[in-house]
Amino acid sequence: MSGGNPVAAGRTAPEGQSGTYFAAPLGSFSSGLLLFVSGASNVTIHADPSMEDLYRARFESQVPTVREQGGTVSIEYPRFPPFDQRYFWLERRAEVALNATITWHIEVRGSISRLTADLHEVRLGSLNLASGASRIELMLPRPSGNVSIRILGGASNVTIHRPEGIAARVHASGGVTSLTFDEKHIGAIGSDVTLQSLDYDDVANPYDIEVTGGANNLTIDAR
Description:
Elements: E1 20-25, E2 31-36, E3 40-48, E4 53-60, E5 65-69, E6 72-76, H1 85-91, E7 93-99, E8 103-108, E9 112-118, E10 123-129, E11 133-139, E12 147-151, E13 155-162, E14 168-172, E15 176-181, E16 184-189, E17 193-196, E18 207-211, E19 215-222
Parallel strand pairs: 2-6, 2-8, 3-7, 3-9, 8-10, 9-11, 10-12, 11-13, 12-18, 13-19, 14-18, 15-19
Antiparallel strand pairs: 1-4, 4-7, 5-6, 14-17, 15-16
């Protein structure tokens, strides 16, 4: 990623879109980082193969601070919610489209809930969810190298789909309740557990998935 000046990129929304719209030019970047600085909820992420911008994002209700610098797209919501916290979480909505021609790293600092990430057209370098994740669905692409998926601080109701024929290994620490890895199911275990597909050690470009802080209703499958 090359350097650049921070930009709070707010372009006029395309016709037919509502909410607040942000975008930045692709420039000469070969990789990018999508960073949620202070957690998030109700987020949809996908790739747009026809898009010429680095990214495009649209927000409803509460609009975060959005900046782009050196290929890093940072999205930061206020750390302190308004008085009615229930309204605060339910009304947050974000949709982010990523350029499909470059490699992306995705990171969430702080808890995240209700994330749907259709990444099957994304060149994924890594994905890191910190401080807990709940109600997450990830649709992973065919990797072009070893790709790490990290969920730190616990996971609840998380489903990870990888393409058929792609090997994977999962390591969960801190106790597990209801873990399904392909055809294998673990009801409850208080210690660390590691599962891997039969061909994990024999093929290139597997997925390495790590969950720390406990897991409840974690499913990893191929489809």
